[in-house]
Each structure stands twice: as structure tokens, then as C-alpha cells.
Amino acid sequence: MSSSVTTIPNETPSHSWFSRLELGALALPFLLAVAITWSVARSLEVANWADGVTMLTGIALAALLVGTLFARIAWLHPWLAHPLALLPGMVFVIEQISPIVRAQATAEFGAAKAQRLDTWGDVAVDVALRALIWLRTLQAGGRGEDIVLFVLILALIIWGMGYVTGWLIFRHQRAWIAVALQASIILINYAYAWPKPTGLFFVFLIAALLLIAYQHIDRHQRFWRSTRVEFPDFLPARVLLASFLILLFLLIATAFLPNQPDNEYLARLWRTIRAPITALREEWQEAFSTINAPPGSTGAFLTRNARVGGPRQLGTALVMTVRSAEYSYWRAAAFDRYTGRMWQNMVGERARAALGVATAEAARTPLPPGDRLEQPELRGRTLVTTTIELAQTRTDGLVMVGGALASTSLPVLIQHGYLSISGEVLPNFTETATVVTDAPLEATQVYTVATYLSTVDERSLRESGTTYPEWVRVAYLQLPDTLPLRVRELAASIVRDAGAVTPYDKALAIQAYLRALPYNDQRPVPPEDRDWVDWFLFDAPGGYCDDFTSAMVVLLRAEGVPARWVQGYAGGELDPDRRVYLVRENVAHSWPEVYFPGYGWQRFEPTPAPYASVPVRPAFPPADEAERPGVTSGLGGALSDPEAMLREMIERNTGPAIGDESALQREIEARRAQERLRLTAIVGGTLTLILALVGVLLLWLRWDVRGLSPAAAAYARLTRLAGWAGITAPPDATPYEYAALIRERIPHQAYVIDRIVGDFVAERYHPAHTASASLPAEDWRALRRALLALLIGRVGAAIRPSAIRAPSRVRRRTPPAQQRPLRRLQ
Length: 826
Hints:
Blueprint: H1 17-20, H2 27-47, H3 56-72, H4 78-109, H5 111-114, H6 120-139, H7 147-170, H8 175-192, H9 198-226, H10 235-254, H11 264-287, E1 305-307, E2 318-323, E3 330-335, E4 337-338, E5 342-344, H12 347-355, E6 365-367, E7 381-390, E8 404-408, E9 412-421, E10 424-437, E11 446-454, H13 458-462, H14 470-476, H15 485-498, H16 503-515, H17 532-538, H18 545-558, E12 563-569, E13 573-575, E14 580-584, E15 588-596, E16 600-603, H19 642-654, H20 660-704, H21 710-724, H22 735-745, H23 750-765, H24 777-799, H25 802-805
Antiparallel strand pairs: 1-5, 2-7, 2-14, 3-12, 4-5, 6-9, 7-11, 8-11, 9-10, 12-15, 13-14, 15-16
Helix pairs in contact: 2-3, 2-7, 2-8, 2-9, 3-4, 3-7, 4-6, 4-7, 7-8, 8-9, 9-10, 11-20, 15-16, 15-18, 16-18, 17-18, 21-23, 21-24, 22-23
């Protein structure tokens, strides 16, 4: 007799890997993640920290997609996922920034050499070489000025931000960490960008809070389903709608708040809170000084490259006050090489080659305080000492010089050229490009600079001739081969129409021609394929100082007149009460300097801006040869004593000082009081912020258990603190099983734990049960202290070095036969 066997089909349906990703359930949180990632990346693009950074949004969204997909693949471990994400990220980022690399190579080396960057590998090699040069420059004490590396690092940060956001949200369900990461980026950008990307910030804020609320309620729903707890239909939609309405109300309310705090204490508190961000920004700018810094965000000039930019918006904040017997412009840096898209300072590179050192920074000459510098071309100059008090910290360390440097009260490093005479290399301080301090220049710092200011007359400049030294002819008549012919023709036409013969008259003719053009500091960025000066002279709707100065230097060089492009500050506004010049951010300026044999560099002013002034020179020298302007004796050895120099300058400009010593002592005490007030504000602001955060946390803890019965509220607090302390329960654990896990960690609190859990279970599962008296406050405080001690120990273990933590990771496992089975609640 045969028996039949009945087979039962497998009732567990099989799911493909695609369906296990649960992409449908991830649609809403993914769209919210896209919104916050897009708003952060787009805010960086709008801020225009560098030209051409329009690829950040695409990079961020691609990284978010990669992070989301990797997070949903359960078998993909972090140690494998993260390197796999980094490799395509690097490839994708370099491919995206390749147009910027080629454009920069064109500006630096010409179109012919830039065409060699055809493949991805060529671009990657160029980026690697730039990184090596950048590191060597920073190690030598210089400042990074390669915009390509800034864009590369910014793009890599955006890639990492997008990837980590996807990983945290969809692998670990930690939306608040991802939001905090992105919030730090958008807030720093918002603090310094101009104009403010307010709309994008509100998009980020709404999407971020909705994402946190959605993931919070979704996590609770999953727990409720596993424990078969009923909850209302469409609960996530209701929570999101309520959250959106609350956010909308708050956003409308913020529209009526003042833009600036009226209270000085609040303003100081805000500055204190911003101090770490400001320090981070200054370190960032030290490494990348070529970023398009918004107004008021930087106290720095470029010293290697000055690129053509777009519209500019300068603030009105005070930069420094200058006490000087003579009005002058305050030079920061000089540039000699024109590429068609930028100006470059090649003085340091020529000095490096002449001395055979590794970097341009190593070729600078130190000048101790008070030491007199030997300047060779001092005809028609007067020694004037200037006292400068900084109102802002100078992150570039540049010392402002009003003429040819003589000495300073600071230890400085001078970047200058060299001359080779009879096989001997000698310094050429006439070709000084920059003067930087050997120590930081902080706000409120006072220093003095002695300079030889020009007082030469027009006849002397006309008679100076055209016998230029070789170093002048080689560097300061240079023009790129790509300069359009019509620029040279325009220069010849201007000079011919004016009947100019001497270099001085040619300079006056070109200056007058340019000053008739319109001034427009909102003109757009010149097209990438156009020469800067050609575009400004023939097609631009006006321009600002950089345009006018570039045009004058190029037109002069086209006529054989050596000139250089200089950047710094215009003279400023005279304060008649204090007898000082107030130099603000909005007088940051560039101007041309023309070389005249025997008289050195002379300033001209082609920019028709209201803050700029044309230099006024006497037509003829003094009738008496003995009265011809020369070099006065000045302060001489007094430069070694800054306080004596300051007193002498006060007497020279405001009359004899009364009570010198007492005045200086009062000034010192005032500075000390100001420093004490600043420290008090920092400490007070920090403590206030900490107390505010603690208060918000306490309010949130109370709000989270609102509406619960005493038993349920006590159980909620217990499980919350236990979770923070690292005691997590399996999803299917009963309250009694969870209580057993907690008792194992803090057995001395077993009575309190059992009472809390017993009251909760009795209330939940035995409605007729009458709750016992509420838990005594001292019992709850003792339990809370025990759990907080576990939490502190957990944090300490997390931050302890791995080498120290390693032994504690080895724990004896209980054999399976000795493990106690967990009993479910009946």
C-alpha cells in the first residue's frame, strides 16, 4: 500500500533585491533630503566664492544618491561602502571642475599650453602638481592663492556632505546628525555671503525640520507596529502638516524682527558666538586667499594673483586710521605680469630663481624694527612717518606703505627683486612688491612706517628720460602675445591726439582718456574668451578701479612706458577733530604706478571714482636749487623706539603733547580694560549659551512626556535615559525583559526599576488596577544619577584613544547553555 505525501508550498514570498530597497517608502524622506542638500549647495553657488562653481549642486545630488543606494544595500559594510564612494567621488569631482582647471591654465600659461589638458588624467596630474606647490607654499609661510585647489576642496566637501547625508538618513535613521552637518555649512556661508541667500536658507530650514519630524514619527510607527499598538491613520501626514504650519508661523514672525541687534551687549554676544567661525574662516582664507570674499568678510589682499572679477560690493566698516603729515595712497601689493585675464606678482619667483631657494617666501628679506632700508632712487622725495592703528585684524599680514619704504616699527619681510652686477647678486628695493609682518597684525594694533613720499615736480619727470634699467624693460613692458591689435592702436591714437612725446605726457594723456569713461562697480564678469582690457575698453558698460588700472598699465606698456598694477587703499576720509584719515573697506583700490629713472615709481589715477584723487604735482622745481625737494633727515634712529616715534608724530601733527607719560599710561590702562571687558563678554556669552541650551533641553524633556499618566511618564523617562546610557532593548522585548537588562547594569537600583516597570505594566494591561503612590522624588533622582553615570562613562569611552579602549572590548561571553532565556510578558 502506497502512501501519498502532501507537500505544502512555501508561504514566505521571495523578494528581489530591488524590492528589498523599499524605494517607495523612501520617496518622501529622499525628496526632503534632496531639498536640504540642494539648498546648501545652491547657497554656496549663489555666494560666488569663486567664479564658475556652478557644478556644486550636481555634485551634491549625485553624492546623495550614491549615499542613499549604498545605505539601502544591507550587506554593504561601511568599511567597504565608504572607500567605494570616495573613488567615484574623486573621479566625478575632477571631471566636473575640469573647465575651471583649463580656464585657469589658459589665464596663467596661455591657450596653447592649456589645450594639452585634454583627458581626465591630464587634468588630474595638473591638480596634483598644483597641490604639491600649494603645500610647499604654506610650509614656507606663504598664502595659498590657487583658485583651482579651493574649488576642488569645496567640491570634495560637498560630495562628502551629500554622501554622508544619504548614509546617515537611510542607514542609521539619524536625520538630525545629517541636518546638523549641513546646517553648519549653510550657516557659515550665510554669515559671510553677500547678498544673503535668505530664500535658500528658509527652504533648508523647512525641509530639515520636516525631515526630522517625519523620521521621528516613522521610527515610532515602526515600534508601535512591532508591539501592536494602535495609532491614528495618516499620522505622518498630520504631523508634517502641523510642523509645516508651525514653521510657517515662525518664519512670518521672524520677518518682524530687527535685522541688527540694537543692544550693544547682544551685539557683543553675537560677535563672541561668531568668533570660532571667524577663526575658521581666517585659517581657510590663509590657505585660499583668492576666493571672492564678500564685503566685510576679509581683511586681506592677494599677493600672487589678482584675477578679473565681477560686480563688487564693499562695506563701510573701518579698516584703519592713519595719522600722517601728508596725504597718500596706502600700497599693499604690486603686480608686474599681465596674462589677459589676471595680474601676477612674479617678483618673488624671480627672487627665488636669483637666490636658488625653494620658494618665493624663502627669498624675502627680513628687516628688523627701526633699521633703515637703503633705497637707491630718492630724488624728489621727502621722509614722512605714518602712524597706523588697525580697526580690523589683517589676515594677510600686509603692512601698508605710502611711498618707498624706509623703515617700520615692526619686524617685516620684504619681497623685492635682485640685480646681478659683476656676478654678484644685490637686492633691488626699488622693485618692492610686498611688505609683510613677521607676526600677526591684530585689531587695535598700532605701528609706524617711515616712507619716502614723492614731492617731485612735472618738469623733472618730463626730463627724466627713457633710459630704463634692464630689470624694468624685462618685467614692466611685458604684454601677452594674445593682446588684440586694436588695444595697441588705441594707445597710439590717444598719445598721437594729445601730442604727447615724453613718458610723463603719455601717462597724462592716457589718464585723461580713461577718466572720461563711466564708472560702474556692478559691471558683469568679462566673457571667458575675451582679453580683460580689450573687453573693458571696447565693450564693457563701464568699470571700476581694477579695470581702469589694468587698461592704463596695458596702454602705457603698449607705448613703451613701464608701469605696474598696484593694490591697496585710497587715502581715506580726513577726520579734522582727530587729525587722522579714516580708511574704510569701500576705499579698497587699485591704481597704476609708472617708473621714471632716478625718481622711481610714481602714482597716477585713471579711475573716476568719488573716493579717488588725481595726484597734484608742482609744475616747476623751486627757484632756489637748495629748496628743491630732497630727502629730509626725519626721525632716524628714533625708529627703534616706537613709543618715542608715536610721541613725535603726535607733536608734529597736533602740537606738543601734554603729560606724555600719563597719557601713555592711560592709553595702556584703557587697552587693558577693553581686553578685560572682551574676556568677560566671551565668558559670559558662553555661559549664557550653555544655560540656554540646558534650559531648552529640560523643556524638551518635559514636553516629550506631556499628557502621559505618572506611571507611563516614569517608564518613558526610564527607557529614554537607559537608551542614552547604551542599554538598548530588542524590538520584541517586553517591559520586564527590558527591566532585566537595565538591572544587570545598575543592580543597586533594582527596586526602583521594578516599581516603575510594574506600575507601567499594571496600568497598561490591567485597566482596573489602581496605581500605587507616585514614585518618591529621591528614588527617581538616585536612579537618574546612576543612568547619567553610565552615559558619561559611555561618552568617555567613545572619545578615549582606541589604543586605550582596546582591552576593554574583550569581554567574556556567557556560554549558550548558561544564558537565561527571556520570558515574554503573559
